[in-house]
Amino acid sequence: MSRRKPGFGKQLADLHRWNGWIVLLLAVTGLLLPWDVVRGWLDGHFRNPVKQLHIILGVLSAVILFLYIPLMKKHLKQIKKRTKQKGNLGFMVILLVGWLLSGIILWQIRRFPPQWANGAIIAHDLLTWIGVPYIIFHSLTRLKWMKKPERRSIKSSQAEDVIPTRPNHEIAAHSNVSYTERSPWINRRQFLKWSVGAALTVSVAPSFFRWMTTSFGGTITNVTGTTKDIADDANLMLPNPTPLPDSVNVIGGGAKGYFRVYSVTPLPTFDSKTWKFSIDGLVDIPSAWNWESFIKMARTVQVSDFHCVTGWSVYKNTWEGIPLSVMLKQAGLKPSAKFVKFYSGDGVYTDTLTLEQADMEDVLVAVLHDGKPIHRDYGGPVRLIVPKMYAYKSVKWLNRIELIDKDHIGYWEERGYDTDAWVKT
């Protein structure tokens, strides 16, 4: 006995239901990944599986979209005269296609130039900020209790088809049917829809504004999600380094774009009275500096781009600091030294470079960004800069360099990131 093929209506309903659940899970996993509080909780090898789940859900969403394509012509014919439904369908298709295309670029980030990834993450975020509240509003306002029509003021079931053609008082006088005045200008369903919309606007608008200022404006976002000016630094590092003329004048540079502040550990703070920097391990001359002696070291200026593996970029940064190759040369390397290990002042974050990578002329131990001390939220007072690699190799809050003979698996590499983080050029 052969099974009957599901009807058109059931196929549409099934696709709509599956798409709803997939989009819900996409929204949950997508919002968890950049959320600082959750990033800390996901630490311990959970973040990468959540990211992989998000990618799998995105692929399933694409499958649902492709399954819908053969049904689209008939569906459009069915809703030809339903303006609201056509508008909703068009918006959802644009939303899903936009998510899919930008998501593919972010998923395969190493195959695309940084400019593509930077545009993709802005598009992906913008679609999320617009799409998720819309989907929530659309879902809530289509619940049965929201769609239930107003109770008729005519109580008799026989009177439901009666169209009053006489004044209300005449109908009441000549009929057993009770009649009340017409509904007010806004009914219950409209009131609930407006209330849901207002609640979503109030809850989403402040975060959306912060995202807009972070992506397109001149503020940064800290771990608590509030905005503050870059000059408001938590570190107490005195005196400030005296910038070189090229750094002050920003020759060929001046950051274009805005940093997104990610941290899975509490942001550390530093005081020049207690801060120390050291280079040790397999070196001939181990050295240690306090803040005053460190900022007296000879520095150079370079202009380079900064690329995060999550997709965003900041172009033409002017960094000032000590070339790593110079520091290693001054320390003197023992023959057994094969790798350079970097330690972060948060006590958690570490990473490594090979000697060949560390010897690249643009690898810098930086103390100034665009002529100013590096902000704590950007990895200051001192951070590593490796322009040709994604930024997780540029260790923030750098305070120790160690020469070692065996490779070390860094913090992010333990959690699924590639050891060689080359940016596609």
Write a structural description.
The chain is of the alpha+beta class and 425 residues long. The chain is 41% helix and 15% strand. The chain is built from twelve helices and twelve strands. The chain has helices spanning 8-32, 36-42, 47-78, 83-107, 114-140, 144-147, 168-173, 188-216, 245-249, 291-294, 324-331, 355-358, and strands at residues 220-221, 227-228, 276-281, 287-290, 300-307, 313-323, 339-344, 350-354, 364-369, 372-373, 383-385, 398-404. The strands form three sheets. Strands 4-3-12-7-8 form a five-stranded mixed sheet. The two termini are 60 Å apart. Residues 149-166, 168-181 and 217-231 have low confidence and may be disordered.
Q: Residue share in helices?
A: 40-55%
- Give the structural class: alpha+beta
Please name the fourth-level CATH homologous superfamily of the largest domain. Answer: Oxidoreductase, molybdopterin-binding domain
Computed CA radius of gyration, to the nearest angstrom: 30 Å
- Counted by DSSP, the helix tally is 12
- Under the CATH scheme, the architecture of the largest domain is Alpha-Beta Complex
Q: For this structure, what is the CATH class of the largest domain? A: Alpha Beta
Q: What is the CATH topology classification name of the largest domain? A: Sulfite Oxidase, Chain A, domain 2
Distance N to C terminus: 60 Å
- Proportion in β-strands: 5-15%
Strand order of the largest sheet: 4-3-12-7-8
Low-confidence stretches: 149-166, 168-181, 217-231
Q: How many structural units, i.e. domains?
A: 2
Number of separate strands: 12
In round numbers, the mean pLDDT is 80
Shape: elongated
N-to-C series of helices and strands? HHHHHHHHEEHEEHEEHEEHEEEE
Largest sheet: 5 strands, mixed
Described by its quaternary structure, the protein is single chain
